[in-house]
Amino acid sequence: MNALREQFVSEARELVQQAIDDLVAVEHEGFTIERIDRLFRTFHTLKGAAGVVELPAMSVTLHAAEDLLAAIHSGRLGITSTTVDQALACLDQVSQWVDEFEAHQSLRADAGQAARKTADRLRGLLPEHAAKSNRQSPRPVTNSATPEWALRLIEARRAQISGALQTTPAELFAVSYEPHVGCFFNGEDPLQLMRRIPNLLAFYVEAVETWPPRAELDPYACKLRLQALAVGTRAEISEIFRLVPDQVSIVDVSMDALRPQQSAPGTEGDATRLILAVIEEQRQVLRGSVRGQDFVGRVGAAARVAANALRSGQRADLAERIERAGAAAISDENVAGLASVLDAAVESLAQVPASIGDTHAGAGGHADSQAQQVDRTASHGLRVDESKIDALVNLAAELIVAKNGFAHLAKRLEGEIGGHELIRAVRREYGTIERLAGEMHSAILQLRMVPVSRVFRSFPRLVRDISQRLGKNVRLVTRGETTESDKVIIDRLFEPLLHLVRNSIDHGIETSEQRKAAKKPDAATLTMEASRQSDRFVVQVIDDGRGIDPAMIRLRAGERGLLSSDELAALSDQQVTDLIFSAGFSTATEVSDLSGRGVGLDAVKTAVEQIGGRVAVASRLGVGTQVRLDCPMNIAMSRIMVVETSGQVFGIPMDAVMETAHVPLDRINWFKSNPGFVLRDRIVPICSLARLMDLPERPASGPESRLVVVTEAGGKITALEVDAIRERLEVVLKPMQGLLANARGYSGTTLMGDGGVLLVLNLKEILP
Amino acid sequence: MSVRRDDNGTIILEGKCPVEDAEPLLQLLQAFPSAPLDWTRCNYLHTAVIQVVLATGAKPAGPCGDPWVEQWISSNLW
User: Fold this and answer.
1) What span, in angstroms and rounded, lies between the C-alpha atoms of A351 and A362?
2) Is A199 on the interface with B (CB under 8 A)?
3) Looking at chain A, which residue has its C-alpha nearest residue B38?
């Protein structure tokens, strides 16, 4: 995929998201002209972008959406949930096409059909659609009605057009003529008609479909679309095309469309980008040029094309320079000078933001070089492919591992030569490298930090759809959108959050009648809140619904045989509430198509635990429910404790370690056949790690006490008996790979300083 | 015939190029894909001939002898 296409994909996604945000906001917070303007601009920019990468289906659909917005803007059409639905459907379609385009570089063959369908649906909402019985009647000419192709022509010839209009006050027409495929056989010469247009201001010829390879070309099938912009009267232009009325469309161009900024938001950026692409092509042509018989032609053409492109972008100054350099290149038979002038032109153009999302700057303000300077320094940042950053993160992680090897080396030195000056020097250097490697690692991880708005922003739309389907009135509040966390964590939070939100709306939030009866405000409030609490990243989903009834949970848990009635009776209300996250628990009385898909909230718990997080729920009956996801800031580094048993070493995640203790034998009691001890009024069972790992047990840690690591996993507290506790490490955990990928009981491996591989235990899986 | 290939291998369009020239031009461009194309000496090009130039991506050297084409179409040959 070339850079232009890549940029299109990422920017189109951003634009789609922005449009969705605005649409949902329009529906909720009401209609403002600014908002509609912005929506219109977003759709228009998207459409322009689709044109640049040649996706006509997308342009057609977006064009219809633009018409709809124009009607809303002018007050001819009100905003209803139907209009918003259709506009959202259009964006869904576009977003699907963008995915398709990214995967296959093209759209499916039926895209055109789908586009027309979507466009027809959108147009069906327009008030004039019903009224328009006579196709011949001139359409009201508004700025937005100026078709894309006409805007493109205007853009390309803006200077000439405004010049011509100053001298001849007349009407401006855009003509698009698509001759029949067989027209050559009828003796027609379509360009002959174009040649007859008086006061032609702009002309553009393009293929109606991509040209086949040379070998398959049919010279007598006309596959051209001819477009022109001309000053004159409708009568005189219609006269020229009177024999082909079905193949031509003549459109009045309002003078509004000629005003640069308002008429065509985004096209300035698009035009710049096109010009840059054109110049880049010429640079390549020059690079391939060697002296030969076609040298003059190639260099001349390259210079001319680049100059024309720049003129169309009103950069006559650059164009002239290039023409001079081109002439010099031909006479000197040396392209170096021309190449460097082209480079300079590219640089100068690049100062005008080429991003299709940027419409605010560079719109014709070339004269003000100071302003350009400011623009350049105020650049937003660098767009870097995520995979490149991931590669960097991996490298930094490897460096940390290598650095740990240094510590091991220092220890060995100490053993071999004792307290020597050299060892102190090595330790000092090690300290420096450790600090630098650590700083580098965290700086690189910072690059992957993304704001939580990355997932939050999809929710207004989702909440709208879900609540509409369930017939509930829900207001979504998001807080702390700018809180940042590692992108891996943020991305993996989407599914669990979606599940929680669905669950809240489906089960937590009452119907309007129920809320009225409970004297609650009609609209329920669903809050999504992100915050940073010391080194944890916390996301909460809070609703003001009916809350969780512990009695109900007890009943369900009993029915589903999750726990015996004795066990249930022993649990506190909070512990009972936590049961909603157990596998096989679902309180929905009937299966709904939203949250009751047989996937319980345990899926949320699993997903969050996979990224090293914890889930907690708090609820008050009748008041609401609050689910808290407590996640690490990043998952790249984990802290582990290294323990030894039966001559083998294992890692235990520090997250799970509560404390370590020497338990005197006389404090160990036997409960049934299991050993245990009382720790702060709590009975903690003791498990031998050797036995858990099927290793030969040997009596260790002295006769009078046992060494244990008290751990907490999956809500259970267990003391793991080990032979020795070694160092604590900060490591990069690698997932189990290859043959071991499915081995249970391990959460990953890490390389130790001495080159050995350390297996890190997954306590939840090994503990009974 | 207003389309031919000269001794240097250049494909030349000359004078008025009618619709019938489209096919021989295409055949020449197919047979000699890298041959230079010279349209400086033609004074009128039929749409079908121009379509062949556009569709094959041929890059004619020099200004087109047909002034209308030179003004409005040459810049399309990017």
Assistant:
1) 8
2) no
3) A297
CA distance A546 to A622: 4
Ranges A18-27, A38-47, A351-360, A374-383: which has the least confidence = A351-360
H-helix segments, A681-757 = 689-692
* CATH tag for A1-125 (out of 1.20.1630.10, 2.60.40.1180, 1.20.120.160, 3.40.50.300): 1.20.120.160
CB-nearest partner of B73 from A205, A222, A304: A205
From the list A594, A631, A396, the residue with the least C-alpha distance to A491 is A631
pLDDT score of A732: 67
> Do the Cβ atoms of A229 and A150 come closer than 8 Å?
yes
Query: Could you identify the residue written with the tokens 């669905």?
Result: A502
- Cβ neighbours of A220 in B, within 8 Å: 19, 22-23, 48
Domain-located, residue B10 = yes
Contact A278 B78 (CB under 8 A): yes
B64 and B41 in contact (C-beta within 8 Å)?
no
**What is the predicted pLDDT for the residue at A380?**
53
Counting every residue written for chain B, the total comes to: 78
Report in angstroms the alpha-carbon separations of A679 from A75, A269, A296, A645, A676.
73, 69, 91, 23, 9
Domain A451-632 matching CATH 3.60.40.10: the answer reads no
Average pLDDT over residues A402-423: 77
Q: Phi and psi of A641, rounded to 5°?
A: -110, 130
The packing angle between helices A295-312 and A316-332, to 10°, is 170
pLDDT of residue B25: 92
Per DSSP, the three-state class of A641 is: strand
Number of domains forming the structure of chain B: 1
Would you state the pLDDT for residue B49? 93
Structural domain for B52, as ranges: 3-68
pLDDT tens digit sequence for A90-119: 999 899 899 888 888 888 878 888 888 888
Q: Give residues with Cβ within 8 angstroms of B44, minimum separation 6.
A: B15, B16, B17, B66
CATH class of A637-766: mainly beta
Please list every residue in chain B whose beta carbon sits closer than 8 Å to the beta carbon of residue A322: none
Average pLDDT of chain A, as a whole number:
78
The one-letter amino acid code at A549 reads D
Residue B77, in any domain of the structure:
no
> Which of A191, A209, A305, A310 best tests the B interface by mutation, with the highest count of B CBs <10 A?
A191
Buried b (16+ CB within 10 A) or exposed e, A503-539: bbbbbbbbeeeebeeeebeeebbbbbbbeeeeebbbb
> Looking at the partner chain, which of A191, A200, A308 has a beta carbon nearest the beta carbon of B50?
A191
Q: What does the block give as tokens for A134?
A: 């006579």
**Position A620 pLDDT exceeds 70:** yes
**Which position has the token pair 């991880």?**
A445
Average pLDDT on A598-622 reads: 80
Q: Does the CB of A260 have a partner CB in chain B at under 8 Å? A: no
Q: Inter-chain contact B55–A223, Cβ cutoff 8 Å?
A: yes
What confidence tens digit (pLDDT) does each residue in A175-193 have?
A: 889 898 888 887 889 998 8
Pairwise pLDDT comparison (A589 vs A674), residue with the higher score: A674
- Beta-bridged to residue B67, according to DSSP, are none
* Predicted local confidence at residue A139, as pLDDT: 38
> In the predicted model, what is the mean pLDDT of residues A127-143?
43
What pLDDT sits at residue A439? 87
Distance from CA of A297 to the nearest CA of B (A): 5
Q: Is the pLDDT of residue A515 over 60?
A: yes
Q: What residue ranges do the domains of chain A occupy?
A: 1-125, 267-363, 386-448, 451-632, 637-766
Residue B76 lies in a domain: no
The verdict on residue B12 lying in a domain is yes
Q: In this complex, do B30 and A214 lie within 8 Å of one another by their Cβ atoms?
A: yes
